[in-house]
């Protein structure tokens, strides 16, 4: 069995995840939910909830977003319709951009 790959993260990412983790934990406590209650409601294990609340960078983003939704923590905007509006704009922008990015071909040095 191979050793798991250790990945480094920028300080900005680490602090952002820590802030999100603390926000989720605070929201859960304010709603008087136990880790077990939240795990059951989210369809996740207690250990995954604990990892999310501790800021584990290896947690699936979908799981983190689901926990935030259950707890009522808005991740993008306070206005409910704003997320949909931003999503439409992002989709429209992507239709204007190239489908893929390619590494530029190296110039051929033909001067012998």
From TrEMBL:
Molecular functions (GO terms): DNA binding
CDD domains (UniProt xref): HTH_XRE (cd00093)
Residues annotated as domain HTH cro/C1-type: 24-83
Superkingdom to which the source organism belongs: Bacteria
Pfam families assigned to the protein according to its UniProt record, in alphabetical order: HTH_3 (PF01381)
Protein name in the entry: Helix-turn-helix transcriptional regulator
Source organism per UniProt: Trinickia violacea
